[in-house]
Amino acid sequence: MAFTTVHSRRRLVVAVICAVLLLVLIVTAVRFLRATPGEDSEGSPSSAPSTVAPPENATPGRTAPATPLTDGEAADTTLEALTRTATALSDPGNPVDLSDVLTGSALDEYLAQSEEFMNTGVHQEGAPTIENARITNTSEDGTSLEVEACVDSSAVQVLNDQGTDLRASQPKRSLTIFTLTNPDGSWKLASETFPDDPTC
């Protein structure tokens, strides 16, 4: 009878030890599973890829805006283009590169007029002046603007080979709308048009 009791006690002790070991294994497994998908017990980041937000002031796909012009600077830019063009047309047989002050249709018109003057023996004397120049419109990106000014051409003559002024009958003053653009970091005259009433 005593042997049976001792044997039963041993079986009970073994059963308790097995239960404790099983409990330890279960707790360890649960902790491991909880730490795997996110962060570990030390707070290290998971293996999920991280993203870097762009700077708040970054604007993808856009360049820095052009330096804005004042009315006075716009007037100086326009007058320089007109003066350089007049000087070049005084000797159309020797074409001048004006791409540093002209662009677009203004450059095309100068090249065409220079060729016409050379072929017909005509040249220009004198240069126009401008008055009351002011910026009337600016594009959203700041790379284009319109300048309205009164152009005084009273000192300008377009002479043929007989010395006749071919523009003697044309108005000496006219209100003109110039478009200036900044295609490569410097402002240039791109075009000129006239309002319905060009009187000034």
Descriptive overview:
This protein has 2 domains: 1-34; 71-193, Nuclear Transport Factor 2, Chain: A (Roll). The protein starts with a helix and ends in a 7-residue tail after the last strand. The chain has helices at 2-35, 71-89, 104-120; strands spanning 123-125, 129-138, 144-152, 157-159, 173-181, 188-193. A hairpin with a 5-residue loop joins strand 2 and strand 3. It has 3 helices and 6 strands, in the order αααββββββ. The chain is of the alpha+beta class and 200 residues long. Residues 38-52 and 57-64 have low confidence and may be disordered. Helix content is 35%, strand content 20%. The strands form 2 sheets. A 4-stranded antiparallel β-sheet has the order 2-3-5-6. The protein has a two-stranded antiparallel ribbon with strand order 1-4. Residues 36-71 are annotated as: Disordered. Residues 44-55 have a biased composition (Low complexity).
Identify the notable features of this structure and list them briefly.
alpha+beta; Nuclear Transport Factor 2, Chain: A; 2 domains; four-stranded antiparallel beta sheet; two-stranded antiparallel ribbon
Pattern of helices and strands: HHHEEEEEE
Within the largest sheet, what's the order of strands? 2-3-5-6
CATH fold-level assignment of the largest domain: Nuclear Transport Factor 2, Chain: A
The residue fraction in helices comes out at: 25-40%
Q: Which runs of at least 5 residues are low in confidence (pLDDT < 50)?
A: 38-52, 57-64
Our estimate of the beta-strand percent is 15-25%
Rounded radius of gyration (Å): 42 Å
Terminal residue distance = 134 Å
* Secondary-structure content class: alpha+beta
Shape, per Cα inertia axes? rod-shaped
pLDDT averaged over residues: 80
